[in-house]
């Protein structure tokens, strides 16, 4: 399907096969009546906005307007510019794992404190930017995070001690850590329902970022690095610095494109959720006018729904009062657990992120210890190691593409796609333990990245789709926080496991990855059949 083609919006086809007429007039839809109209309940995922029926009605009208406008060049550009945020997040995780050995050689470190600190930066960033997106809006966080990431990345490459390296590397990861929360929220909140599967495909950018970093590491580390800790002055160990510099330059270029070329408008769903109806209508009307599309939404229709019942809008209402901010954050967290079904959904999402955060990273770390203990040799040189890794990450780009296609199959949807990805990943990972050669490593690592990205890509998209608009950034931030808290234990486990030589963690973590198939099947919402609110 050519998603850049112009489309005339006539009817909304839900995945169940129903044809629901487009409603652009609040009175005709019945959305001014007490409670929700049948049309709202059928089309929109209203269960996630039970706490505020007025907001659910307004979201229904906003969704109608977005569907009426359809897919435009604005959405195509947003797919690329927001998608690259996935790349930056993965680049920051990948660059640390790539350069760690040579940084440790130069600064004489034995314990992986830098990797531990990188997780601290990521998890603090996920909370700060995730919560910030609900407090001050998506636009500010979206535009500033990449610029800060690039700035601190340049500084990281110039550090002369492990302590200063850790500080600026943590700041770079902090800046990138919550960018992902904004990327998925911003793209979803502009996306017509017909193209909502693209939120899953957008995770392909994750593999793009990992491939970019691996190619940089492949180019610089084998040729500009020392051979061991015995003699490793900076003069012969510049590869890790070059990797940081070039990676930061790429991130800076994408940040400048966001600021001066794309020029994001605040998302209409955020504006409505904080009581700024006029701005929401104005943004949509200007988008429709720019691309010569129809937009029937008026301010009167939104105002006729009534005022939002929540007194907690954003910090703009009362300025930056810390007590008010804490109250809003607390309120957003309560929204995620406003009733049993939302509480169940939020809990399972957090469990999913917690499990995948620790199990996958530990499995991969212990995998090579296990293979070496059983007589395997997966890399005859640094060149071969980075070559295999680059190939595997490139193949991983296409996992989310398969996930996006599977989400379109009516009887499969998001949940079964995640179950398939989890089970396939478990099978491939257990098979990986039989590898004894570099060629086998290349093949199994490619398959691993492909299938784990089927799961990851769908989970990244599913998470914001089933979260209430008012607390979407908060929910995604908490999910990323859960993954990074659990992932932060992987360096500790790896370090002590390497000393003891135990292979138990590899089997436990592989089983945990497989258990995610059950968790996915238990999730209560199926977004492929309803519009996100």
TrEMBL record:
- What does the record say about its membrane topology? Multi-pass membrane protein
Localization, per the record, is:
Membrane
Secretion signal span: none
**Source organism, top-level taxon:** Eukaryota
Q: Where is the Major facilitator superfamily (MFS) profile domain?
A: 71-529
Ranges that cross the membrane: 116-133, 140-161, 203-222, 242-261, 348-371, 391-409, 416-435, 447-463, 475-497, 503-525
* InterPro entries xref list: MFS, MFS_dom, MFS_trans_sf
Decide whether keyword Transmembrane is in the record.
yes
The protein depicted here goes by the name Major facilitator superfamily (MFS) profile domain-containing protein
UniProt organism field: Ogataea philodendri
Q: What is the lineage of its organism?
A: Eukaryota, Fungi, Dikarya, Ascomycota, Saccharomycotina
């Amino acid at each position: 399907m050519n998603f850049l083609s112009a489309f005339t919006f006539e009817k909304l086809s839900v995945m169940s096969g129903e044809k629901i007429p487009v409603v652009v007039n609040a009175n005709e839809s019945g959305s001014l009546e007490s409670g929700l109209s049948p049309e709202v309940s059928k089309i929109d995922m209203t269960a996630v906005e039970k706490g505020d029926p007025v907001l659910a009605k307004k979201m229904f009208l906003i969704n109608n307007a977005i569907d009426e406008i359809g897919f435009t060049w604005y959405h195509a550009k947003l797919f690329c510019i927001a998608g690259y945020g996935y790349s930056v997040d993965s680049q920051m995780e990948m660059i640390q794992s790539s350069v760690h050995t040579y940084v440790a050689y130069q600064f004489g470190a034995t314990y992986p404190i830098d990797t531990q600190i990188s997780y601290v930066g990521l998890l603090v960033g996920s909370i700060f930017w995730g919560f910030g997106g609900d407090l001050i809006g998506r636009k500010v966080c979206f535009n500033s995070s990449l610029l800060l990431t690039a700035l601190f990345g340049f500084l990281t490459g110039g550090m002369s001690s492990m302590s200063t390296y850790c500080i600026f590397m943590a700041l770079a990861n902090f800046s990138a850590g919550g960018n992902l929360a904004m990327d998925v929220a911003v793209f979803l909140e502009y996306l017509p329902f017909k193209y909502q599967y693209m939120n899953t495909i957008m995770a392909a950018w994750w593999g793009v970022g990992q491939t970019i970093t691996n190619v940089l590491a492949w180019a610089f580390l084998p040729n500009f690095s020392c051979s061991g800790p015995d003699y490793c002055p900076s003069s012969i160990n510049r590869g890790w610095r070059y990797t940081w510099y070039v990676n930061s330059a790429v991130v800076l270029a994408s940040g400048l494109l966001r600021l001066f070329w794309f020029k994001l408008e605040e998302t209409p769903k955020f504006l409505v959720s904080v009581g700024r109806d006029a701005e929401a209508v104005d943004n949509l009307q200007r988008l429709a006018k720019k691309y010569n599309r129809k937009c029937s939404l008026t301010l009167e229709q939104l105002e006729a729904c009534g005022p939002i019942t929540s007194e907690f809008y954003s910090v703009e209402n009362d300025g930056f009062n810390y007590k008010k901010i804490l109250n809003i954050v607390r309120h957003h967290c309560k929204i995620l657990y406003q009733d049993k079904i939302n509480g169940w959904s939020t809990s399972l999402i957090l469990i999913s992120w917690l499990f995948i955060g620790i199990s996958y990273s530990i499995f991969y770390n212990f995998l090579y210890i296990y293979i070496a203990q059983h007589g395997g040799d997966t890399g005859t040189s640094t060149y071969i190691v980075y070559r295999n890794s680059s190939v595997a990450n490139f193949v991983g780009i296409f996992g989310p593409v398969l996930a996006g296609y599977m989400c379109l199959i009516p009887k499969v949807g998001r949940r079964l796609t995640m179950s398939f990805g989890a089970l396939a990943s478990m099978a491939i990972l257990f098979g990986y333990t039989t590898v004894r050669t570099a060629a086998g490593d290349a093949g199994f690592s490619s398959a691993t990245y492909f299938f784990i990205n089927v799961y990851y890509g769908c989970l990244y998209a599913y998470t914001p789709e089933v979260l209430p608009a008012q607390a979407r950034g908060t929910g995604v931030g908490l999910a990323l926080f859960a993954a990074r808290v659990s992932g932060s234990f992987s360096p500790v486990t790896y370090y002590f496991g390497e000393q003891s030589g135990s292979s138990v963690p590899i089997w436990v973590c592989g089983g945990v990855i497989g258990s995610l198939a059950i968790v996915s099947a238990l999730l209560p919402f199926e977004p492929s059949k309803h519009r996100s609110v």
